[in-house]
Amino acid sequence: MKAIGVTREGEGVERLDVARPEPAEGEALVRTLRVGVDGTDHEVLAGSHGGYPEDSDHMILGHEAVGVVEDGNGSGLEAGQVVVPTVRRKPNGETNEYFRRGEPDMAPDGEYVERGIVGDHGFMAEYFTSPADTLVPIPEELAEYGMLVEPISIAEKANDHAFSTRAPFEWRPESACVLGNGTLGLLTLWMLGREFDRTYCVGRRDRPDPTVDVIDELGATYVDSRETSVEDIPDAHEAVDYVFEATGYAPHAVQTVHALAPNGVGALLGIPGPWEFEIDGGALHKEIVLHNKCLIGTVNSHVKHFEAAVDTLAAMPDWLLDDLVTTVATPENVPAAFEDDDDQIKGVVEFDTL
Ligand code: NAP
Ligand code: BGC
Ligand code: ZN
């Protein structure tokens, strides 16, 4: 069957011809519809994140997928059901406390593999298999944009964890700022627009630009980080109650603290490689303590977040989904989905339709 991946010897994305997988007991066979490409895929391609499955000369890419159950294989899923797979799996099939309690997203390094990212094949192939409890059913009418459930689930988890840190007191947030105008940033900007009176989104692009158009359309304020550094947002606009970092630009981790209003919370999601820079550690420490600020890191998501993401996706307006998905490529024309120019927001590889 056709698959898209990387090889240890090769350079960049390649078309692969691999055997169609056989579902093991408890697994379903899924016919892939669409698979999205995100910033992490580019980090995997650049070699700054993730790694090959042991004993394999290649890795099939893709962790944002939607497909149709081809064979339920006695797993409880019915053929024809539209499903979205979660990303983390047990390392070498051996379970641990995080998987046992349904929270693989909280497992530390080494206690999980990630499909298409860390040590396991992804979903960018005509078929894939997966345990039934890692396949989240979605309504058929959401199939076209079902590959967005995974990135939305990432934001669901981050927001849940961040807001939970403010639960012990009466937090009355009004403003939020998303750092990053990639798909994760823009999906989250829409979500935060439902909860906050004022939203901001930080990028580094000149107008006209398709991501800035989306920011405008969402009624958010565009902040160009080349003109206004993140730590200067309080002077240029206002100190914000929530920062959602989705740039992978390491200095933003520190600048976030200075962009926050007293009692605010920042969630860091970017995954940079090594990056050295100078900071005033004392000022940072003092700022966090004296203003009750909180900075969290958050990665991955589990089934509960996927289920919340299905409802969120259902509520998203059609224009936003249409604007975000800028390329739908066939497996034959796959480089188009991985192009990373300013016209691209989300590239998608389509293997089949319902
Ligand atoms: P993406 O499409 O690459 O988006 C990143 C965006 O940040 C780009 O639009 C980029 O702008 C912008 N940016 C980078 N540096 C900037 C700066 N200094 N000032 C202003 N804007 C800047 O990636 P994505 O898929 O949205 O994901 C965002 C990050 O989150 C990535 O690092 C990804 O690995 C990570 N991520 C983490 C999780 C998790 O579970 N923690 C999940 C998904 C993604 P330009 O395009 O103009 O360069
Ligand atoms: C994926 C997550 C994954 C993270 C770290 C993200 O792009 O969406 O599922 O945990 O990368 O590898
Ligand atoms: Zn991702």
Explain what you see.
By secondary structure, the chain is α/β, with parallel strands linked by helices. The protein has 2 domains: about 1-135 and about 315-350, Quinone Oxidoreductase, Chain A, domain 1, CATH 3.90.180; about 155-295, NAD(P)-binding Rossmann-like Domain (Rossmann fold, 3-Layer(aba) Sandwich). Helices cover about 25% and strands about 25% of the residues. The chain has 11 helices and 19 strands. The protein has helices at about 40-45, 95-100, 150-165, 185-195, 210-215, 235, 250-260, 280-290, 305-315, 320-325, 335-340; strands spanning about 1-5, 15, 25-35, 60, 65-70, 80-85, 90, 115, 120, 125-130, 135, 175-180, 200-205, 220-225, 240-245, 260-270, 295, 325-330, 345-350. The strands form 4 sheets. Strands 3, 5, 6, 10, 11, 18 and 19 form a 7-stranded mixed sheet that branches. A 6-stranded parallel sheet has the order 14-13-12-15-16-17. A 3-stranded antiparallel sheet has the order 2-1-4, with no helix packed on it. Helix 3 (about 150-165) packs across helix 4 (about 185-195) and helix 3 (about 150-165) packs across helix 9 (about 305-315). The chain is globular and about 55 Å long. The mean pLDDT is about 100. The site of beta-D-glucopyranose (BGC) has 12 residues, from helix 3.
